[in-house]
Every structure is written in C-alpha cells, then in structure tokens.
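Translate structure to sequence.
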C-alpha cells in the first residue's frame, strides 16, 4: 500500500465558530464547506473543524481518530494494515462530506486512523462537490 498523504485532520473545538474565525483570520485559510462539515484548507490537507464534548468517548462516527490518510484502494489498504497488526474499527462507509469511501483502522499502540479513498473528480481542492 502507498499512502498518498494526509487527507484530513480532525480538530475538535469547544467553540466551533470561534475556531473557524481563527483559522481564517490568523492562518489565512480558505474554508471548504460540505454539508454540515467545515474544513479549513492548509496545502493539500483538510482540517475538519468539529465540535467536541469531553464527556463523549467517541465522535459522531462512533470512533475516535485524529487524522486520515489518502489511499488509492481502500480494501487493499485495510488488508495491508491488518497484515501489520491493525484491526478494522469502522467498516467501509460512504461519508457525508466527500465523494468516495472511508474506513477506520486501529494502530497498534496508538489511536485509530481513517483511510480515505477519494472518488474523482473530488479531492481537497474540488469546489464542485454536492451531496449525492
């Protein structure tokens, strides 16, 4: 498997609107709004600005992970991760904020990681996205 790069990083906030203003005003980020999800763009990486509740153990997907990587073939990536001691913690699903598929795998000794498979023409800079 070859990872193409970091696709997205979850940035948990207690005041989402204030964090969004900071990313735009202080960092000069462009925003990419996709349905209920707001991303701040830094290079080719999407910072997914999410709400956090310290009393909740898992996020809205039911799994806590901190970042995702882009892969070309999701099934192959899962298989190779499992060969290296990983387990599938969130089966393949169709996300609400991009065209493609995603899954979450455990990392031995660490926090789970999302595997994101984009579907063309979508990607971190694609502005024509709309819910399907």
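Result:
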């Amino acid at each position: 498997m070859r990872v193409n790069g970091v696709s997205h990083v979850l940035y948990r906030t207690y005041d989402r609107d204030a964090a969004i203003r900071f990313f735009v005003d202080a960092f000069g980020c462009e925003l990419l709004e996709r349905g209920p999800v707001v991303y701040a763009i830094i290079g080719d990486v999407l910072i997914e600005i999410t709400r956090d509740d310290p009393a909740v153990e898992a996020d809205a997907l039911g799994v806590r992970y901190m970042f995702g990587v882009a892969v070309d073939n999701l099934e192959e990536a899962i298989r190779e991760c499992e060969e290296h001691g990983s387990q599938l913690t969130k089966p393949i699903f169709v996300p609400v904020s991009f065209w493609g598929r995603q899954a979450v795998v455990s990392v031995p000794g660490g926090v789970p990681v999302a595997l994101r498979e984009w579907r063309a023409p979508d990607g971190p800079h694609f502005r024509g996205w709309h819910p399907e």
